[in-house]
Amino acid sequence: MCPAKPHATNMAGNYDALIIGAGHNGLVCGAYLAKAGLKVCALERRNIIGGACVTEELWPGYGVNTAAHMLGLLQPKIILDLELQKYGYEVLTPPPTVQIFGDGDPVVLWKDPAKLCAEIARFSAKDAAAYPRFNAHLARLGPVFRQLLWEIPFDPSSLKPRNLRDIAGFAWRNRGMVGPFHEVVDLLTMSAGDYLDRWFESDAVKVMLGYYPAAGSGLSVELYSPGTAYFLLRGVLRDNGTAAGGTGLVKGGMGAVTRALAASGARHGLETRTGAGVARVLTRGGRACGVVLTDGTEIRADTVIANASAQHTFLDLVPAQDLPPEFLADIRGLRSQSTSFKVHLALNDLPRFPGLQAAGADSDSPLQITIAPSLGYLAKAWSDMRAGRVAERPFLTVQTPTLLDPSLAPAGMHLLSIYGGHVPAPDVMPHDAQTKELVRRNTIAAIRDFAPDFTGEAAHCEVTLAADFERIFGLPGGNPHHSDLSLSQIFFRRPARHFADYRSPVRGLFLCGASAHPGGAVTGVPGFNAACVVLKSLGKRTLL
Asked: Which of 150, 163, 190, 518 is the most buried (most CB within 10 A)?
């Protein structure tokens, strides 16, 4: 409880708003609130800001993207509103990704649709003819889903006048959804595999287009998992034609994004504190009024905003008596287990994949290569995990960011950052040193299948499993979205019924992170939407 008067000692001042967690969404929210004139402080448990959007010096001279590794969805509005380009934000455009198929046959995933169609024609002339129609179909739906990102979810079960106004406003703003309504529903409910089956006949093409939904999303799913069709939209959820620029690798690593956000907010007074873990949220009369840090320091605020996961916020930080039992049941029931991993290697000699230059790639050691040779390969990695084993041959996204940004490693050295799957959950297989060594060996073996001269010998190696992502970054189950983006856990059900509008049962306590709509990935949208809701609750002008 918040005492009626401040303690004489161990107090740290008052703020209009405190943000729990200085990840990218917390910093987006804080920067907008500070820009609107609020006194704001973002509290970070670790000794570095950024959350899962961070670059860390795991070894002297190396800048490692320990979690998020690619900038694909940070929204242009946020980049331009907060003028991030003035604060060191710069995106480097990578060459096209290369994907390995069959017995090592490489395909360059050209950004030029005509060149990509020529690659698809190697597998199926029918699919090459279908691809432009498929691409145009998704592009037509892109604006519909981009609009949905910025919506504040309403409660469809409430007949309160304010909620009815919200529903009416949503219907009017999204009236463009009426025509393609069934296509929208299909993308939200179908599996990526079933959706692609409608368009294409070649398994290779389905792997090419379905790799991200099946593997790259960070969720524990496979191509035919219901609800994964939505991830086919990834390429159209951002407008790449604005002054904010396109997508790619961030110069200086992903941490440059969050450093730029903090610097942008600081000019308006946003404070950030590291080494400031929150032990609990203070409440009085059912309203949040500050926090207590792990060192016992109390900090007062009129508003508390959690960038931490909903699970940690409501199950660990908020007194249970302040929360309805049905709300707690929803939070406890969130599904969040990830089965993905990352392996970081410091090398002086990169793997070379024969035939890449002949296929049109810049080099036989490309900046990014995907190892997912077939649908059967992806299915085997999944079935290994389901049987309680580390995937014998994991799917892999193998990235060498130092080919584009040499500043991330000492001269003459490179970073190989590998994302892959699958590994059983820690309650099935302990995420210990033995399991990590098995993941490392299987990862090297999967690369050597297609780069036979690669030894895997490294000056440094780091393997990160789901339990590590949870421990280090506070990601429940290692899930970058905090909870699965399944139909029962999106929009007005995210994170719980009746509380999907960034508010919570505790007045003055809000969510601004991946636990809220629209979920994870480095978009900045939950932070922006939460800032709008907070300002509206304070009777101030909103940001939209």
From this structure: 518
